Amino acid sequence: MNKQLIECVPNISEGRDSAKIKAIAAVVETVEGVKLLDVDPGKATNRTVITFVGEPKNVIEAAFRLIKKASELIDMSKHTGEHPRFGATDVCPLVPIAGITLEETAVFAHQLGERVGKELGIPGYFYENAAKEEKRRNLASCRSGEYEGLKEKLGNPAWKPDFGPAEYNESVAKTGAIAISSRDFLIAYNVNLNSTSTRRANAIAFDIREAGRVVYEGNKLSGKPMVDEHGETLRVPGKLKAVKGIGWFIEEYGIAQISYNLTNINITSMHVAFDATVDSAIERGLRVTGSELIGLIPLKAMLDAGDYFLRKQQRSLGISEAEKIKIAVKSLGLDDLKPFNPNEKIIEYVLKGATKKLIDFTVSDFAEETAGESMAPGGGSIAAYVGVLGVSLGTMVANLSAHKAGWDNKWEFYSDWAVKGQAYKNNLLYLVDEDTNAFNKIIDGFRMPKSNAEEIELRKQAIEDATKYATEIPFQVMEAAYNSMEVMQAMIKDGLQSSLSDAGVGILCARTAVVGAYFNVRINAKDIKDRVFAEEILTKAKAIYTKTLAIEKEVMDYIDGKM
Asked: What pTM did the predictor assign?
């Protein structure tokens, strides 16, 4: 069974006192197995977004400790800030990351809320997917009236808390209330304007957000909101679904912003919200100067933004991950107000383990590691890396061809080939390390105890399974390197002819990767006891080997004829 992982993103009502923020965030890592990912304070909003991740029970314990510490250090009766709020820990959403559903996450949200209410005496509401009644799904409804209206709200039977005390007492006056939820991944995203006007920022927010704007009788200042036959307030819907938004002035930066919550980035992405805001701002005589990401973002969202802007520029999408992120950052102006560090803002990068992989080494360090006394990395990893170099050359020619003057109408053709090349490259990079991992599995098998018949049998099976895997990995290298040759073949035929030699070297590298990996398949397969498995993989490997040599000869004959 895959490990269950959830993310917790509590927002605390303190963004100015660094000592308090540090003390509250620090309790998260007192729970074993929980990783603190990000602490993002805002002075103007007087609010800090804290992000951590781990297995559900551990995350719930860490969230409880954080809420407790915040209730001890934050006095809501003295709080001021631009952001809507009603509690020391204002909201505490739980987000499913891996191996767990929204519904299962909601169960943990309920467990957390019940414990907060009973043990800490803090009243609260369950919202979004944890809501126990429909009118409480919307956070804005749960938080309406904010802290200043909390006494009246708690006294209203219709808004009796889902957990904790229903009466306003001295303790509640200090801690306020809390909203706890289970929700999809949400991006908190602010767009910056060349204006100081909150009213104009709000006008743009109303243009964009799903809820749009309220319709008034007469005008907004003198009229009252119009309602339909059911008594519901009439609204003009905004341009984008799954978007919440308000405008505000940020004294810290001296500008107005539109603050968005993108509640489902599969419906409305960050880059779509940005461009819609740009269009609306221009219509209102304003200009967008950049944007700001609060908390963390999935890697895919950044790469999708990079691809979006590359398409608008009619540029090849087959560039490196790092370059795509750079394009996204610059196009969205994510570094407008402060530096944007992908290693601190992209979830997958923050979660990367401390163990250094072979592909993280410098070129010279990789060579030194290979030349050392250890048996790994060996020929299999080197074969995979030579394949990486080969298809990287083919991808380079595709990207260069996409930029050639006069070939503007063919940029998508070359972009598609470059994207294919990047996919082959990434697969081969994975196999560089996986070949070494496969070898280590065999060593682990030989190190297993063999003091009795049962242990001897388990050891034999482990060695057999590891040997099969150590044969399958170089076979995958063969397949990937052989398939990658199509990129170089296409570029030799239709790419820049001045880069013919580059594509040719790419073919030679791919050929070396196939032949080198074939050696590994053969040497490992001879030790497999399951001869049916061994003969089957050897037959398939021999076929790839033969076809590779034929392609090499064909390409070399073609290049010889051109030079």
From this structure: 0.77
